Amino acid sequence: MQDFDTDILIAGGGLAGATLALAICRLVPGYRVTVVEAFPLSAEPAPTDYQPSYDARSTALSWGARQIFERLGLWEAISRQASPIRHIHISEKGRFGVTRLSASEHGQPALGYVADNRWLGLCLMDALRQQPAIRWLAPAQAESATTLTEGVSVRIRQGDEDVSLTSRCLVVADGGRSGLREDMGIAVHQRDYDQYALIANVSTERPHEGTAWERFTERGPMALLPQVGGPEPGHRSALVWTLSPGDLDEVLALDEAGRCARLQQVFGWRLGRFTRFGDSHHYPLSLVTADECVRPGVALVGNAAHALHPVAGQGFNLALRGLMALLDAFRFARDNDRSPGDLTVLSRYQQQHASDQQQTIGFSDSLVRLFGGEYPGVGAVRNAGLAGLDVLPGAKHWFARRAMGVTAGGSSRQPSDRDREHWQ
């Protein structure tokens, strides 16, 4: 058998890649792991008095994501800066239909959480520094990969030098615009929504009280996610605003007061007046799925495998569940003396994750299609659907569990004694 430089090479050390590296070392020990990351690693530990800046970007974490981080022994640290979502309020502008979800109805303290991206990264780095089995190459870029008889050879650009490493398995985690995916000729299926997402933090006159607001309008959906830490606690929310290209240009041309006024027109007055509109970022929206998630010696994860519309906040949560499916495949390989890059091993990951991926993509894409435009008679159907969902316990329960990310296999499993032994 060929001697390899590493067992598992993860191309991309962002949230998905770093989480997978930690999961392998804590839950499936025995593998040599190498992470290639384009940005320098921060040597800064997570401060005990950490406070996010007003304009810090954040990620929605489902209840299922919390359970995954509990398995990794990371939730206690993350929770110190995670804002609980206790209620979800879903409505459509100009119509009376409303759906309300509450964590208490499901016997949980929260339906999900909102976490500052930088805090997530600091918590992950703190944990990863304690893992001697991980080799970090950063800043570095995995530029190409060649399939070998029993693994993969990866060419890595580090500074002015090119380095080649052989690995039993290459995990592609370098994002939605994956250079490795393109280099390997893995095609993607892309559907453009002809929309942009505008991301910003905003403040409101009334406190959000742990409520996430999903507001559907004739020009696209918007979401306000509650944030409790940092400046203006209890009054600050993360805004995800879907806009057409023309509407985006109009909003970007406005000053802060104008943006608050425009947002007020669309969202309404449930939270009183919008008092602040922070720095904004925007990006085009599309549904992207890779035609292949596995090849001999290669697995795609996260946005390299699938990128979703942010309407339901499911993208990163789907990625986390995919990482756990891949982790289960690696455990099978270790326990059965198989290579982690064996196609029969990676096919287990693909088969386990495929149903979850299809259902989650279908769920979010259906919301975009149903609420993304005005067609004759559709408005009345949407209105009746929201009103009916609020009063039909079975449908409401299904919708809540889908939003909580606990419908797919493995995502709701509590940490086992075996897990705790690995990371205590």
Descriptive report:
This protein is an alpha+beta fold and 424 residues long. It has a single domain, classed as FAD/NAD(P)-binding domain (3-Layer(bba) Sandwich), CATH 3.50.50. The chain is built from twelve helices and 20 strands. Strands 5, 6, 12, 13, 14, 15, 16, 17 and 20 form a nine-stranded mixed sheet that branches. Strands 1, 2, 8, 9, 10, 11, 18 and 19 form an eight-stranded mixed sheet that branches. A three-stranded antiparallel sheet has the order 3-7-4. Helix 1 packs parallel to helix 4. The longest helix has 29 residues. The radius of gyration is 22 Å and the shape is globular. The two termini are 34 Å apart. The C terminus is likely disordered.
Topology:
Layout: E1 6-11, H1 15-27, E2 33-36, E3 58-62, H2 63-71, H3 75-78, E4 82-85, E5 87-92, E6 98-102, E7 112-116, H4 117-128, E8 134-137, E9 141-147, E10 152-158, E11 161-172, H5 179-183, E12 188-204, E13 211-217, E14 220-227, E15 236-243, H6 245-252, H7 256-267, E16 274-277, E17 281-290, E18 294-295, E19 298-300, E20 306-307, H8 315-335, H9 343-371, H10 378-391, H11 393-404, H12 417-423
Helix pairs in contact: 1-4, 1-8, 8-9
Named CATH topology? FAD/NAD(P)-binding domain
> What percent of residues are in strands?
25-35%
- Calculate the mean pLDDT score and round it: 85
Described by the principal axes of the CA atoms, the overall outline is globular
Biggest β-sheet strands, sense, barrel: 9 strands, mixed
The CATH class is identified as: Alpha Beta
Cα Rg:
22 Å
Any guess at the CATH architecture?
Answer: 3-Layer(bba) Sandwich
Could you tell me the number of beta strands?
20
CATH superfamily: FAD/NAD(P)-binding domain
Uncertain runs are 374-400, 408-424
- Per DSSP, the total helix count is 12
Count structural domains: 1
* Span of the ends, CA to CA: 34 Å
Helix content class: 25-40%
Strand-pairing-aware structural class: alpha+beta
GO molecular function, one term: oxidoreductase activity
EC number: 1.14.13.-
Pathway: Cofactor biosynthesis; ubiquinone biosynthesis
InterPro entries: FAD-bd, FAD/NAD-bd_sf, UbiH/COQ6, UbiH/COQ6_monooxygenase
